[in-house]
User: Fold this.
Amino acid sequence: MEMHGEERIAAPRQLVWEALNDPDVLRECIPGCQSLEKSSDTEMSATVKVKIGPVSAKFSGEVTLENINAPESYTISGEGKGGIAGFANGGADVKLVEEGAETVLSYEVKAQVGGKIAQLGSRLIDSTSKKLAGQFFTRFNEVVSEKAAQA
Assistant:
């Protein structure tokens, strides 16, 4: 599965960068996130509960940040295991570009799923992934824009 897009955020790039690296902000914005803990400056562990079609699964996994070029870009990669439901792994290249008082966050995602969820079909997985990404970025934009307005 591949997905890409961009989000225009009413906040300076440094604030957006800090939010992308803040487990409290991410925990609040990731749909179905039950836990997210930072184990080092480049590693986090997470538990996320998602529903894809008729399958509900709880994924536990590790996330690693690589190719860090603060506050402009990084690559996030991870793998999650959902028990009998299967697994998901992949990564995303994230870039932040300042445009006046706003920041344009762009992303390119490549991911794979396996196990029971892979049997649901790529169209359902793709549409669910896009929906979850949309929910994340809408909430992330709200949280970061609010922080910028308060600053």
Observations:
- Residues 65 and 76 are 5 Å apart (CA to CA).
- The chain has a mean pLDDT of 94.
- The chain has one domain: 2-150.
